Amino acid sequence: MTADQLKQLISAGLPCEHIELEGDGRHWFATIVSAEFEGKRLIQRHQRVYATLGDRMQTDEVHALSMKVHTPAEWAAKSAAD
Questions:
Q1: What is the total count of domains within the chain?
Q2: Best label site of 3, 43, 57, 63, fewest CB within 10 Å?
Q3: How is 56-72 classified by DSSP, letter by letter?
Q4: Per DSSP, what are the bridge partners of residue 28?
Q5: What's the pLDDT tens digit per position in 2-57?
Q6: Which pTM was predicted?
Q7: Taking the mean position of all CA atoms in its chain, how far away is CA 6?
Q8: Which domain holds residue 77?
Q9: For residue 29, how many other CB atoms are within 10 A of its CB?
Q10: Among 62, 51, 80, residue whose Cα is nearest residue 5
Q11: From the CA atom positions of the chain, what is the Rg in Å?
């Protein structure tokens, strides 16, 4: 799977303001910013992203996905601090 394919999958199932992906085709690191994360705990945010991938995690198309997930406000505050 390419970064563009993974980005399209996530974007199709989750409205995102920002997505960054790095990886080798099986092991990925993502930074995802979505308003849908508002009011959700970290585990709920991760579950929401995993839901967009469906069975691709079980079929090993995406072997590993590490994530940093932010609301738009959290992302703006982080960007301002950097």
A1: 1
A2: 43
A3: GTTTTSS-EEEEEEE-H
A4: 23, 65
A5: 899 999 999 999 999 999 999 998 889 999 999 999 999 999 999 999 999 888 87
A6: 0.90
A7: 9
A8: 3-81
A9: 13
A10: 62
A11: 12
48 membership: H or E segment, kind and range: helix 42-53
Residue 76 belongs to domain with CATH number:
3.30.300.90
Q: How far is CA 13 from the centre of its chain?
A: 11
Residue with tokens 């995802």: 32
Q: What is the pLDDT at residue 33?
A: 98
Sheet containing 18-23: which strands, arranged edge to edge?
Answer: 18-23, 27-33, 64-70
Pairing of strands 18-23, 27-33: antiparallel
Token pair for residue 75? 């992302």
